[in-house]
Amino acid sequence: MSKTSNVEDILKQLAKEFLESSEDSLVIIDDAITRLMEGGKWEEDFSEILRRVHSIKGGGGTFGFPAITMIAHALEDYVETSGNIGTDHLPGVQAYADAIRDIVDRGENPGDAQTTEILRALPASGPAFADPARADAVASGQTPRDIGFLLVMPKGLQRRIVGEELVSCGFRVSLAENAVQAIEIALANPPDIFAASRFNEDMTGAELARVFKAVDSLSQAKFLMMTSSDDTDPGNLDLPAGSRVARKGEKFTEDITQHLIEWGVFGDIKA
Hints:
Elements: H1 3-37, H2 42-60, H3 66-80, H4 90-106, H5 112-121, H6 132-139, E1 148-152, H7 157-167, E2 172-176, H8 179-188, E3 193-197, H9 205-214, E4 222-227, E5 244-247, H10 252-263
Parallel strand pairs: 1-2, 1-3, 3-4, 4-5
Helix pairs in contact: 1-2, 1-4, 2-3, 3-4, 3-5
């Protein structure tokens, strides 16, 4: 047996073991969801769900199932941006688990196009248009769209607050901790809009915007830079044409609302 054949056999065995382990975790997730629906202990049962999802996420890409990793990541985003998780969210969690199970049962990773379809069919978190400014826009006769928004920000309280704010706009929100992860997520599920801080751990917001512009499938995404500075002139910040700037803090909602309206988010996204 050649070394190549031996390595291939090992990888196949590892992939098989990953699928078997994922199936076991999905059974545990199903049982935990059932207990929660019947009044189970959230601190125990939901924590177990999150542990199992995180474990599945970590193994998917390693063992040849990047779609599973993307779905598990999207489930974590769903939980993080949903605010106070309750019984009403459990059918959504179940839908994500079922999407993972479909791939596990097939034993084959779906292609890029199918992965995107799967991700976009999954439940979005939060109530649409809870913010009065957006509600006014809808009431004025503008029609909201199904829009994907990728938020690039380190995990923490600030990201959760901003993520929930975006969910209140009715967006499908995806979360990335850094620019490299943002590119990976965007290639699997191209966003309509993405936002990043001016300075990030691996590249600046301006650099990330130029990367998106250079990739055909991502080049049409609108970019919003978040900054602590009062300078909101994209030209001064070396941003690509069409980019916008939102000030962090108390001005964030005001700035982002204005940009979304000008972009035509409640109709067709404008150039």
